[in-house]
Amino acid sequence: METLLKVENICKEYDGFKLDNVSFTIPKGTIMGLVGENGAGKSTTINIILDIIKKDSGTVTFWGKELSSDKNIKEDIGVVFDEINFHETLTPEKVGKICAKAYKQWNGSTYNGYLKRFGLPADNEIKTLSKGMKMKLSIAIALSHDPKLLILDEATSGLDPVMRDDILDVFLEFVQDEEHSIMMSSHITTDLEKIADNITFIHKGSVFFSKLKDELRYSYGIIRCGESDFKKIAKEDILAYRREEYQLSVLVADKKAAKRKYRNMVVDDAAIDDILLIYVKGEQVR
């Protein structure tokens, strides 16, 4: 499939933190979920992709071009951060007029349609809106200048479950024609389980894995066992493990094979949250 965004070996070092050779690709027509604990490097990665932060090394290309070499690419990228970037005394109506001058591809009808769909009052100042409504306004703006790629940083974090579900449907509509893509950073892994095609997990500044969501959901498993059974599990079968109060949780890449091989042990399905917790809070066999 044609690649919309390609990130290759990007590095950035600060005092006490290093983004280390982060690489992944986003094909056309797909949604990639970017996950990781606070401080893992997700926002740094997004800011480097958008050329807000200068990388130390590596390359970021949109449709084969670097953002720094072709500023027109920005027209084709819709961005939603976890805070709105417009002055709080503006109204959604005034924001629309500003965006009409800022974006060559701005579509006022599309924007007004999203305001109505999201229940946003056009003449209320931004400061009177709830956090969730501000987030919906940011999403309406990002979708109204005909972007090919949406980059979302915690875009659903301030929304109630019903509105979050509605917004996820909007995102699915956006990629339905297989010409658009989304990169979505989120702590709400159930959202990603619903809509993401791929999951990229950043841990301590490095990409731990970048895999198909269905591989994680349907192939990975967790063996629940005691200390004596844990010693019987082959080291090569263990991706990571976590010691809990009464048992160990052992992450394996092939739950069907684990069920055949370890018949006397419980092998559960693994949600994305489970996988991340075991990697972040657990250990790996050395």
**What would CATH call the architecture of the largest domain?**
3-Layer(aba) Sandwich
Question: What is the H-and-E element order?
Answer: EEEHEEHHHEHEHEEHEHEEHEH
Radius of gyration: 21 Å
Strands across the major sheet, in which order? 5-6-7-3-8-9
CATH superfamily of the largest domain: P-loop containing nucleotide triphosphate hydrolases
Q: What is the helix tally?
A: 10
The separation of the N and C termini measures 37 Å
Q: What's the β-strand tally?
A: 13
Quaternary status: single chain
Textual characterization of the structure:
The protein has two domains: 213 residues, P-loop containing nucleotide triphosphate hydrolases (Rossmann fold, 3-Layer(aba) Sandwich); 63 residues, no CATH class. A hairpin with a 4-residue loop joins strand 11 and strand 12. It has a six-stranded mixed sheet, sandwiched between helices. It is an alpha/beta fold and 286 residues long. The two termini are 37 Å apart.
Keywords:
alpha/beta, 2 domains, six-stranded mixed beta sheet, four-stranded antiparallel beta sheet, 10 helices, 28% strand
Condensed summary:
With 286 residues, the protein is an alpha/beta fold. The protein is 32% helix and 28% strand. α2 runs antiparallel to α3 (108-117) and α3 runs antiparallel to α4.
Write the layout of secondary structure elements.
Layout: E1 3-14, E2 17-27, E3 31-35, H1 42-49, E4 57-62, E5 77-80, H2 92-102, H3 108-117, H4 131-143, E6 149-153, H5 161-175, E7 181-185, H6 189-195, E8 198-203, E9 206-212, H7 213-218, E10 221-225, H8 227-230, E11 240-243, E12 248-252, H9 255-261, E13 266-269, H10 272-281
